[in-house]
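Supplementary notes for students who missed Thursday's class. We covered one full example, reproduced here. Read the sequence, then the structure, then the short commentary at the end.
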Amino acid sequence: QSCAPDKFFTVASPAGPCDLAIARVAEYDRRIRVDSAPLATDAATIGPGEGKEPPIVCAGRVLHAEAAFGPLGDLLLLPAEEICRARLGEAAVLVVRSTTRIDAELLAGTPVRFVATATVGIDHIDTHYLADADIGFASAAGSSAASVAQFTWGLILLACRREGLDWRRRRLGVVGAGAIGERVARVGEAL
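Structure (token representation):
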């Protein structure tokens, strides 16, 4: 079953292992949290071990990989430098961070049907290749927008306090209305 219904969109009702991974990425993106969870440094297989579902290969430094993907089937955690075509084996899903280049050289001839990156940027992903190969894709785009907007406002308020300025009597100019700029502007309007 293809897990790329419209190339880069998630599906409403998960059915196969790829669709479950897409849904899990989306769910985890909504409730992302960072704590002191141990990071996997060596190759390890986690999960039911029943071998019924194609395995998920995941970079070992993806936070909470075991909790997010372990329940979906066999999970192979690898250090990023060990992720290569030969290690993908029968994997249907590949989850990486920015140190792993995702392109035809890595994926051609593998059974991978879905790639996720636990990063905001996607400059390490050949999205054109993924679309042409009908491989689904998800990233963490926008996942840090709220915290960056809050940090921005913290800096604005701190600078105003240090300079003795009344921030309520100032005009805010936001250059760029992307995910972060839009949130900064909305907070400004609310204040």
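Commentary. Residues 1-17, 28-52 have pLDDT under 50 and may be disordered. The first strand starts at residue 44 and ends at 46. If anything here is unclear, bring it to office hours.
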